[in-house]
Amino acid sequence: MIAPAVRAAVAVGQTRVIIDLRITPPFKPEGDLPGPAAVEAQRKAIAKAQTEVLGRLSGTKFALVRQYDALPTLALLIDADALARLEAAGDVVARVLLDAPLFRQQ
To answer: Could you state, in order of their start, the residue ranges of all structural domains in the chain?
Structure first.
């Protein structure tokens, strides 16, 4: 659930990460959902999971970098205490990945 690169980076200091969240029912791309009501229900489940994770991080050193409406994902800046909380939140956190740019700017 926690990428080894995340553990190594957090050991050095605050690190940007991507958090994949568990929602019920499991996430489906909005185009695969049967209609607007299903899209709205999924977005509410995503928002609930995001709120749950952010609440569990209370009291740790973290910053919200980006919150998505249609994806069960959060981008965060975290420290070791926040990582420990995320690891303990396996019911709502599916995985924690290092947030690394795909392309380097020159």
So the answer is: 4-98
